[in-house]
Write a structure and sequence with these properties.
Layout: E1 2-7, H1 13-22, E2 26-31, E3 34-39, H2 41-50, E4 56-65, H3 69-77, H4 81-84, E5 91-97, H5 105-124, E6 137-143, E7 147-153, H6 175-184, E8 193-195, H7 202-211, H8 232-245, E9 254-258, H9 261-273, E10 280-284, E11 297-301, H10 312-329, E12 333-339, H11 344-347, E13 354-360, E14 363-371
Parallel strand pairs: 5-6, 8-9, 8-11, 9-10, 11-12
Antiparallel strand pairs: 1-3, 1-4, 2-3, 4-7, 6-7, 12-14, 13-14
Helix pairs in contact: 2-8, 3-5, 6-7
Length: 383
């Protein structure tokens, strides 16, 4: 059994663990920033193909204790790199660390690259070239206080790059984070879903792909295809089966709106690129003026903040109006608001039934849950 580590946006580790367990992963262990698990190569392919929440799937190829830079170099030098990928493949090394005593991760990156190249020179008489922009193979090294773990990246481009996005507009929400938020909200069809500030339509596309049982990685390539142990027949069978099970696009109870017609056009372009233009209902509308598309359902939104909307005073004025609109028009709905502006909780004037810390990259955010019941949601005291 091989050992793997799937990274994900912080706060979604449990959601990812459930995904991987459903795919048949063994010894599933969520930790901060991802999930360790065991399985075979077929499971590795399936995780890349099917996971909506993972950012990357890393294959563990080595592990050693260390005390110095020389120890890390020696540990990397003895790994069988020439058996793992061809010398004609370009490579990149990434090093990350928690509580490592080593002073320079850049120096460690250089030393691991040198170790891999030395191994190739000894075995093949030639060394692979380095390409930091678009490498064929990515080596990842993770350092703790005294342990170095070496991985090969089986994903290539990060998994949130599904291949459908034409444009994201300003500050687009990453696809795997949007999918994770939908899972945290407990949404599934046929419950109506509505994003009243849809921007480029990330929530809408991810929801439609979930409802149509479309594998998120069915139309892209992966890093494992460039490794020496790649089993093409196994991979093609998995991908073809996933493509065959996808339901034809049809009208779904998924709705989106935005006050900007230009922004709504971006959402239309992304939906069309994903092959689901007819599955989602779009309407130009300001959330402060319009009503939801059904009597009850789940509303999910990532309100504009910072440079996307304007100055702090404009934002401070917007949040109470948003709270009023939700209370007055959305009784019977549950709203999930994802934001990096933590002032929203105090300014919106509603009492959150749940607050989930999440991270959008390095940016600390919150997912607020509001159960909108007529006459009971206005907060009068407390925070």
């Amino acid at each position: 059994m091989e050992q793997f580590f799937a990274t994900c946006p912080r706060g979604l580790e449990r959601v990812l663990a459930d995904e991987l367990a459903a795919l048949g992963a063994r010894d599933v262990s969520p930790v901060d920033g991802g999930v360790a698990f065991g399985g075979d190569l077929t499971l590795c392919y399936a995780a890349n193909l099917e996971s909506r929440v993972a950012s990357r799937v890393l294959w563990q190829v080595g592990h050693a204790r260390y005390r110095s830079e020389h120890d890390v170099f020696d540990a990397a030098r003895v790994l069988p790199w020439p058996r793992l990928f061809d010398v004609r493949r370009t490579l990149r090394v990434n090093v990350s660390a928690i509580k490592s005593p080593l002073k320079s991760l850049d120096f460690i990156t250089l030393r691991v690259k040198d170790a891999a190249c030395d191994a190739f020179r000894a075995a093949r008489g030639a060394r692979p070239d380095v390409n930091t922009e678009s490498p064929d193979v990515r080596i990842h090294v993770f350092l703790t206080r005294d342990q170095a773990t070496f991985y090969l990246d089986t994903s290539g481009d990060p998994l949130f790059k599904r291949g459908w996005r034409i444009t994201g507009g300003d500050a687009p929400l990453r696809e795997n984070l949007a999918a994770g938020i939908l899972k945290l909200a407990g949404w599934s069809a046929p419950t109506p879903l509505y994003d009243p500030m849809c921007g480029g339509g990330t929530f809408l596309v991810e929801a439609a792909m979930m409802a149509l049982d479309a594998a998120p990685g069915a139309n892209r390539s992966f890093g494992f295809e460039k490794l020496e142990n790649f089993e093409e027949k196994t991979w093609r069978a998995l991908r073809d089966k996933a493509r065959a099970r996808r339901k034809p696009a049809h009208a779904l109870p998924i709705h989106g709106s935005d006050k900007s017609g230009t922004v709504l056009g971006l959402a239309r372009d992304n939906l069309a690129a994903a092959g689901i233009a007819g599955a989602v209902q779009l309407k130009q509308m300001d959330i402060l003026d319009g009503a939801p598309p059904a009597a009850a359902g789940i509303a999910v939104m990532n309100p504009p903040y910072g440079e996307r909307l304007g100055d702090d005073a404009e934002l401070a004025a917007f949040y109470p109006k948003l709270g009023d609109a939700l209370k007055q028009r959305y009784a019977g709905w549950t709203a999930y608001i994802f934001t990096a502006d933590l002032r929203l909780a105090k300014l919106i004037g509603l009492k959150a039934s749940k607050r989930t810390p999440l991270y959008n990259g390095a940016l600390e955010c919150r997912l607020f849950e509001y159960k909108l019941i007529a006459g009971s949601m206005r907060r009068t005291t407390g925070i």
